Amino acid sequence: MMRKNERTVLKLLIIIVAMVLTTGMPALAEEITEEAEKSVEMDEMVVTATRSETNVKKIPTKIEVIDNLDLEMTVGETVTEQLKKNASIGVIEYPGALAGIGIRGFRPEFSGITKRSLTLKNGRPVGASNLATVLVDNVERIEVLKGPASSLYGGEAMGGVVNIITKKNTEELTGNAEIGFGSFETNFQKASLGGGLGSRFDFDIYGRRYDQQDNLTMGNGEKRANTSFETKNGGLRLGADLGETWRIDVSGDLYQGRDIETPGDLADGDTRPGNKDIDNYGMDFTLGGGLGANNHLSFTGYYTGEESETYRRYSGSEIVPAYRSYDSETSWRGLQIKDEISWSAHRFLLGVDYQIIDKESRSYNDDGTRKAPSSPDESRENWAGYLETVWKFVDERLTATAGGRYDTFNVETVDTPYKSDFTANSEEFSTFSPRAGLNYLFDMGARLHTTAGQAFVPPSASQLAIYSEREVEDGIMITEGNADLDPETSFTWDAGVGFDRPVWGLSLDVTYFHTDIDDKIVDVQVSETYKTYENGLGAEIEGLETMLSFDLGAPLGWDRSLELFANSTHIFKAEEEQSDGTMKDIHNVAEYTINYGIQYNDGLFDGKVHVRNQGKMKDTDWNAMGYPEIEYPSFTVVDLALGVTMFDHHHLLFKIDNIFDKDYYEKKGYPKPGRCFYASYSFEF
């Protein structure tokens, strides 16, 4: 239920809209001429849907774009905050820099190298199992592909793909310096510089420091102990034109989180505090150019890494001096080769991807000595080839896409120091993932679109190859991998209708989706002393995605924008099969997520009121006897952002997160902050 003051704000928004519509209707009738009635082709281009630059309104795949203005005017420093407020996808966030996402009814996942939603940076893996380390500095836009994409990107693209597109300034030299402060004794500094150096070379460089020195305050007014942190991040890109069509870009980025405090579950009070240090870094190069008028070849190589050290200040039920309890290292290395061939209006994309992921972990006793980690070290090697075809007919009104990808994997568990209860092993498997779609664009801006495709998630190294022995009361418990496991697979189809009329300032889309999941991998207790893994169970997900934006400034002929916006995901069904044959709601998936509000921009003043409403969802109460299933309550949170530009180069920005000091949580035991204030000043040139 919304509070009285929340309802008051929403009523004011409705009154403002009604006043503008009433005063503007005569002008609206005069402005709509025969010329304005002609369809205006959108020039918004995306790359995620086909791995090539494509008009977003002429492709079957459901793509949502979060542009630079949305990023600036949305409260939130991390990519997960931006995604949940702008693309209505599922997110899980813990205090202490831990977060993950889930798209189209798949539960959010925040760790490990095997997930059901894929995150990329400029088309290559982002190299972060924990998305709390992925920030939105130096980001030009975020493209969110909803639906299966294994035909282009392989494993982990079952629910969808998030592709973070960074800034690439190749024109005049521009820069920005920003300082700010906020609630909980927060201070931050940012700087960026980029542009052309002569006729052939260009660069971008940026840096940021963020320090929250005090603990969070929850919506109930109480302090949440052990929640302060400090982060630093930055990056550099160098680019050069090597000829008439060939170009190379080399880039690197770094994230450092230091003394990030972790409070633990609220049910434990202040008895299980800790902190951690996190490093995330990436390096890549892209070389591309033409092999003729209708052929473009590109090469991308990358290396990314994630390192984490976890420190505890408790042992059992006692507070002890801080000690390092766990650390891990994960690395992603790969090469992407893509050839894009054009024939008339049609395109063919052929590519080869190679990737190897290594993960190591170490555990420690409270006296500093080593002990066996809970899981063995692992490695995963993947070769893949893909073909994506884009066909255009009827004066390019009809677009048909069809393609597929063949993946081969070699996964292995690796000899792990201090872990002697298993035998290292390796297994190989392969899989094929097809996808096809149709999009038809009508004269007045209406369009129909549909896709169908198969996606997969590979088994983990442990599920395929582990062999471990553990002493139990009645003997030796054996856990053994199953070399015959198949990947978990899904088949998804969706169908939608869209309408885009720029002269009216109107854009909308409604898309229904249905997903069937097969061969889910589950633990099987064969006997009291033997456990293994098998394929067998299934799941079913269906829902509706909606998007609406209406810019009143367009039909009224204003030189400013006043936009009403809304986007939502409603989950009609998200159930997974149990071993007894019954169906159970998938946990941590909300019944609905709705974002709506109003945004104003005239080049000098910016303003945005954002409302986020999340519905109920199921989870397990791990603090109650017997671990019962519980249901989270729905909640509504309102944010505000106001900006002003002075003397062309100076910009002030004010943001309020959770205006009405809502006491709520997205994960039980980990409440979100109450009302927060932030202000910043920036100088741009």
What is the CATH class?
Mainly Beta
Uncertain segments are 1-42
Compute the gyration radius: what is it? 26 Å
Question: In percent, how much strand structure appears in the residues?
Answer: over 45%
Q: Which of globular, elongated, flat, extended, rod-shaped describes the shape?
A: globular
* Alpha plus pi helix count: 6
Portion of residues in helices? under 10%
The CATH topology label is: Maltoporin, Chain A
Gross CATH architecture? Beta Barrel
Distance between the termini: 46 Å
Query: In the CATH hierarchy, what is the superfamily?
Result: TonB-dependent receptor, beta-barrel domain
Mean pLDDT: 90
Secondary-structure content class? mainly beta
Describe this structure in words.
The chain has one domain: Maltoporin, Chain A, CATH 2.40.170. It contains six helices and 39 strands. By secondary structure, the protein is mostly beta strands. Helices cover 8% and strands 58% of the residues. The protein has a 22-stranded antiparallel beta barrel. A five-stranded mixed sheet has the order 3-8-9-6-7. The relative contact order is 0.13. The protein starts with a helix and ends with a strand. A hairpin with a 4-residue loop joins strand 22 and strand 23 (398-414).
Task: List key phrases describing it.
685 residues; mainly beta; Maltoporin, Chain A; 22-stranded antiparallel barrel; 5-stranded mixed sheet; 6 helices; 39 strands; 8% helix; disordered N terminus
